[in-house]
Amino acid sequence: MGKGVVLKSTGSRYRVLFGEGIILECSIKGKLRIKELRTTNPIAVGDNVLFEIDKKNNTGIITEVLDRRNYILRKASNLSKHSQIIAANVDQVFLMITIILPETAVEFIDRFLITAEAYRVPAKIIINKTDLYGEDDLAKMEYLESMYSKIGYECIRLSLHDMTNLETLKLLMKDKISLISGNSGVGKTTLLNSFNPALNLKTAEISYYHKQGKHITTFPEMHQMPFGGFVIDTPGIRGFGVVDMERNEIYHFFREIFRVSKECRFNNCLHLDEPGCAVRSAVEKGGIDFLRYRSYLNIMEGDNRKYR
Ligand SMILES: Nc1nc2c(ncn2[C@@H]2O[C@H](COP(=O)(O)OP(=O)(O)OP(=O)(O)O)[C@@H](O)[C@H]2O)c(=O)[nH]1
Ligand SMILES: [Mg+2]
Ligand SMILES: [Zn+2]
């Protein structure tokens, strides 16, 4: 019997790390049952598991998934019934965005951030590919940076082309379990390769990425970092359906909206068009950014469009 952590899960096979860097391919015990949650994957990257070794073929059999400290769930859309656990037991999540090639939509960012809020996992924003930005792109970047840092989300500028700020990121990720999410083509896997060239992970060819990514990474995978800690690379996501949120609690996860909501006339105010709504008046006065409020309205409408 051993104890390890799941580095990769591809449906029925699991790669488990244990001891001093030993990696074991595992399957799952037939009658293993996981309580809770209707998810498409019972065991996720980051799960701590108990296993037995099958001496015949040097593989492992997972017999138990230990309690999760937390997890990040996502649905493909608001309509889909099943959700997927992207990863479990993470210390922090980083959303990697780009202003161009591809352009990350503000609403996509907000859907991600409120999900992180709902699961109480600290989130930060990485703005990658700064080497490609022209004047307008830089202005847009500064706008978003100021909008999000005001709310309390640290933004880190990055260029993996110039290798600027890589050290800053290393310090933030050192000795922690970090998950990186973002649209396809923003450079998540390239970051992992920059941290550890020996990983030699597959990324899109330069000539390959146009407006959108090509979904090069297909399964989440956790990698041990030479500077200490683990980083989880994930497949690029299109839409981000928010999971398990009641309509009347969505605003709780927009930090600045929640703060202001305490001054609304009615304590069941949904900040749509109620009289005496402090949120709407803050939007009009500029205290709450209109872009954030627009994301809120779209999510409240249950808008199922895909956001890239
Ligand atoms: N100019 C420039 N290109 C970059 C930068 N970072 C990544 N790229 C390029 O962007 C492309 C996509 O990078 P990937 O690392 O494959 O993107 P990804 O986020 O892992 O994409 P998926 O696996 O499809 O989700 C590659 O051609 C990278 O070389 C950067 O800072 N500047
Ligand atoms: Mg990738
Ligand atoms: Zn209100």
List keywords for this structure.
308 residues, OB fold (Dihydrolipoamide Acetyltransferase, E2P), Rossmann fold, Ribonucleotide Reductase Protein R1, domain 1, 3 domains, 6-stranded mixed β-sheet, 5-stranded mixed β-barrel, 13 strands, globular, binds guanosine-5'-triphosphate, binds magnesium ion, binds zinc ion
Structure characterization notes:
This protein is an alpha/beta fold and 308 residues long. It has three domains: 2-65, OB fold (Dihydrolipoamide Acetyltransferase, E2P), CATH 2.40.50.140; 95-233, 3-Layer(aba) Sandwich (Rossmann fold), CATH 3.40.50.300; 247-300, Ribonucleotide Reductase Protein R1, domain 1 (Orthogonal Bundle), CATH 1.10.40.50. Helices cover 23% and strands 23% of the residues. The protein has seven helices and 13 strands. It has helices spanning 106-118, 135-151, 166-173, 188-195, 255-261, 278-285, 290-300; strands at 2-9, 14-18, 22-28, 48-54, 59-65, 71-74, 84-88, 92-97, 123-127, 155-157, 177-181, 221-224, 230-233. The strands form three sheets. A six-stranded mixed sheet has the order 10-9-8-11-13-12, with helices on both faces. It has a five-stranded mixed beta barrel with strand order 1-2-3-5-4. It has a two-stranded antiparallel sheet with strand order 6-7. α1 links the parallel β8 and β9 (123-127). α1 packs across α7 (290-300). The chain is globular, with a radius of gyration of 21 Å. Bound molecules: guanosine-5'-triphosphate (GTP), magnesium ion and zinc ion (ZN). Residues 128-129, 131-132, 159-161, 182, 184-190, 203-206, 209, 213-217, 235-236 line the site of guanosine-5'-triphosphate.
